[in-house]
Structure formats: structure tokens, C-alpha cells
Amino acid sequence: MDLASPVEEVKGIGPKTAEVLHKAGIFTLRDLVYHLPRDYEDFQQAQNISDLKPGKVTVKAKVENVRLRRMRRNLNLVEATLRDKSGAIRAIWFNQPYRAKQFDAGKDYYFSGTMALSHGYYQISNPSATLADDYDAKASTAKIQPVYPARGSIKSQDFKKFIKTIDNNIALIPDMIPNYPGRADALFNVHFPETVDAAKKGREYLATEELFSLLLAARLNREENQKLHTQAIEGDMGALKSFIEGLPFKLTNAQRRATWEIIQDMEQEIPMNRLLQGDVGSGKTMVAALSCFVAARAGFQAAIMAPTEVLATQHAESLSKLFGNQLSVALLTGSTKRKAELKKHIKSGEADLVVGTHALITDDTEFKNLGLAIIDEQHRFGVMQRQKLLAKAHTMPHLLSMTATPIPRSLQLTIFGDLSVSILDELPAGRQPITTKIVSPNSTKQMWDSIDAELQKRHQAYYICKKIDDKGASELSNVKKESQKLAHQFPNYNVAFLHGKMKPAEKDEIMTMFAKGEIDILVSTTVVEVGVNVPNATVMVIADADQYGLSQLHQLRGRVGRGSDASYCYLINSNSDAPTRRLREIERSQDGFYLAEVDLKLRGPGELYGSLQHGALDLRIATITDTKLVHRAEALVKQFRQTGYDLVEYKELSDSVRKYQRLTTLN
What we know:
The protein is an alpha/beta fold and 667 residues long. The chain contains 23 helices and 20 strands. The protein has a 7-stranded parallel beta sheet, with helices on both faces. 42% of the residues are buried.
């Protein structure tokens, strides 16, 4: 079976269906057979309604009182009563109007869904529905039913038919990894399992196969990076020591350790490829500054690329103040005046350190001797943008990337396996802990009183919303409406709003005004998740906080508590239900590394990785928190390299590995 064949070769897939599949990223037979079930239904385990407990449930029942309700903002809701001999329970389907006409009175159906308490009543939400007669007739040969993720107009049942038409060919699929047999059996057991355990083992094999590609890519990248050559930057340790002793504050041990690791890397003729990760407020900019000082003292230029003009300006101003006349600091952004003159200074080498935005990588920006490239908030930049910055050097420069998102250990070993990692796990002295409280939307008076007290002290506040306006079908808070409410509630204070669809110049102007204290309350989307340092901001309010991930909540909370004053973070639940585990965890902990581990377990690596590294991780099967599979894949990679296999001989494996390699390679 040729997995590279187009899906049009599958019986039942015509041009229109193929078009829908293409939009979903399914072009080949490989894409189709790797479109795995998201769940399984074992109708033989159906329970009596009277015996149900919260969680995933399956019942065999008749349907009564089906009703379609048209809600506001284009929402619709189908309600029904499911009844068996033991009792009845409510079922609801959101935005599935066809359910209202799906059921025949008097006939039994199998329903599988999640049962939970809502507004004082138990209900099953969005259950699947299968006519019992259809299933019972096939039960002797199909005990476990796969449930596939829908794609556009193509539903789970359609995918089941497509896979069924090629079931005989699955046995012919060759193994992808040398000396790791069982791929065909794994795929067959995932799509046509006899038992749930068989499906689980099949997924484990495919997950290991996926992790193998990722880990091999990281290893190959590291090996390739070791072959690159650059100029060594010899650190003047005497000058650095004197500079550090003259600082008005004491470095943390973590800052000292990270700086030393960077200096040791820069002294090598192999280009540094190091990631500096630290919790919010841990002092990454200071470590970057010391690295730039070492490079400049050795006769090299350094560049710091920041994602926004406001952040670049803040860096340039703080670094100019820090270095005084010891280093020449230049700021290059889109709005920089007399650019031509400034770029002459950069080209001649008069500028020791250049801080800027994307303006650093324009074609007419040239450096005399760029030796150190630093990318701040590196997840905001793409692979090509990073490579353009590196290309500004005559030889490959040393690269330091920085992120404020703590990375779990398991991700460090896998996704970032080709990087050296420095960790800042201490906060500078004087930082105040942030008091964090979960707030019910029905009990906000105490929160508003606290915010008013902070504003009276001439402190500032953030108010974070999920949406920009009230368009669409969501009941979530939005920037425009909340800013109007807050302006009415606090008439004596200046309220402004900010969101990602505003023009860059408008966003920069608002953030600059907030940083200067000209705005008291800033209502914003998560565009402020990373950015400028505003020590006077002591209040962070996050509306609909249960809709965010832990890492993002922690990042947002980190916008306050950056001065010597006590700070507060209020997490407003979107409803009056009990708080989620995410909210409880962030209420009790301010340890970003602990929260990152919890977030990884709760939400998986996809979203977290997306906030750390440009490009999609696209792990469709594997879960990086499964250390058993990670270690199994690591052993296979080691065996592959020791055996001396040539990756070129294995095209499918090579394509899979190269996909991951492109995300982090230096050259």
C-alpha cells in the first residue's frame, strides 16, 4: 500500500469530499490512516440511568420531549429526555439542530457523553447517538466502536466508512522505524480494536513512532550545530566582575549561573544555541545585558530583537542607563528618526549594542561585526525572521533566545533537545508576592472595593477580556463593552482599551501612555501577556479566567508585582460553578515551573509548545508527559544512531524527521 497515494483513490471519496479533506490537511492515504479515533464507545458497557455517576457514561434509552431552542447570537440548543426502565436524565446538544429530527419515538438508542451537574441538575452534554438495532446487529463482529474527529461536513461515521474500505490494505503498510516492527498491527488495532486495551497498545506504538521522529530530529540538529564554526568571544572576566560589583543591586545565584553558562558557550568556536528561560520577573534582561557587555568588551557587536516597539524602547532606555558611557546603545525601530544616519553607525561598528524590532532584519541594516544575537520573547518570531538576524553576521553568531514561559523538564528533553537551556528559578530581592483570588461573577463587590483602594493610591490596573467586541455567539466578556462599564464605574479615572487588531502605532501609543501612568485602567485582550514593565500596576483582573490555560494565566499575573508594592490578581469565573482545577492551582501557587508541569498534564504539549516556539509541534498521538514512551523512543534513537542507518534510505521517516528539524535548526 502506497501511503503517498492521494485520498481520491479511496472508494467513496469524490472531488467534493476530497476538497473538504484537503482543507482539513488530509491529502494522502497516510493522512487518512493517521486520522485516528478520538475515543471509543463500548455499548456493551451501557449502564442503567439510575446507576450513572458524573463522568463519561453510556446508556441505552428512548428519547422523549425533544425540543429545539433558538438562543440569541445564533446559538441553538437541542434538549431531550432520555429514559430507560430505571429512570430518566436530560440530554443537551449545542449547535447541533439536526438532533431535533434524528430520533424515532419508541426506538432505543445508545448514547455516550459526559454527565455533569449544571445549574443544580445532572445532564449528559453532546452525547453521540447510535440506533440500538443497528449496533446490536453488528455487535458480534464490532464490539468497540471508534469515534473519529469530524472535519467540516465529514462526520465520524464517514471516516469509519473510508477506513473500512481500505482495511485489507492496512496489513501491507511497512514499518517506518528500522528494527521496530508492528506498525501495521498497531494501526489496525487502533481503527478496528477487539478490546479497549488493544486500541491503547496500538496508540502507544504509534505515539512512540512519533516521538522517535521528534527526538531524532533534535539529536540531528545538535549534531549539525556542532559542525558549524564561529568566532570565539573571549570574556574579560576582570571587567565583568568590576561591572557587576558596581550594580545597585545584587544578582541572584540563578542569574550568576546563567551568565557563566553563556560566557562559556561564547568562548567556543561552535556557535552557542542557548535558551534562557525564567519565570516572570526573574531577571532575564539583566543576564542578556551582561552577555552583551562581554561581547562588546571583546570587540563584537550585540543585537537584541524584541517583538514590539514599546518593549524595544524600554530595553534600550534601561540598558543605556545601565551601561552609561561604557557601551554605545542604539535603538532601531520602525519609527526611529534619522534611520540612515543610525544605520551608518551600526555598519561602522560605533554602536556596540543595537536594540530593535523587525527593523533589525531589513535588507539595508548591516553590522560590522555581529557576534551575539539575542531574541527576546522568541516565540513571537518565526524561523525565517531568526535566520535573517543570524545572517547579519559575517560568520554564524552566537544565539541566545529568551522566553518568560517556564518549560517543563519533559519538554526540555524532547522539543528543545537540540538547545542548551539556562534556567532562572529565583526572583530578585524585594519582589512582593501577588495575592491571587478566585471571584464568582455574582460576588464581585469586595474585588471592586479593593481595586478602588489601589487606584486611590495612584496605582494602576489591568482588566483582561477574552474577546474584542460582542460579535459572534459567545457570552464571554469583551474589551469594548467592559471598558465602557469601567469608565462608568470609575468616572474619576482614565480608562483605555487595547487589542491585537489595532494598528501597531496605536498599540504602542496606548502601552506608552500606560507605562507613563497616564492611563489608570487598561482593558485589554491577552496582547499584554508579555511586554513592558510597569512597576506601578498593582492589580490584574482576568475575566472568564476559567477559559485560559495555566501558563497563560501565570503570564498575565506576572504583569503586576513588578515593583515594591503589594499586588493583586483577581480571577473571575465565567459562571457560578465550582472553580476549575486550573484556577485552584494558580490561586495557591506562584511557582511558574510547577504550574507549567500541571498545565502540560491538563492540556497537553500542543498549546504550550505553540507559546514557546514558532511552528506547530503537530504531535497528533504522543503525549510528552508519558515518560515511559519518551524513554522508549530515546532508546530507539540511540540504537538507530549506533547501528549507522542512513536516514536517506528511509524516505517517510526522513520526511517526518525533517519536519521537526526545520523548527529549531540554526542554519
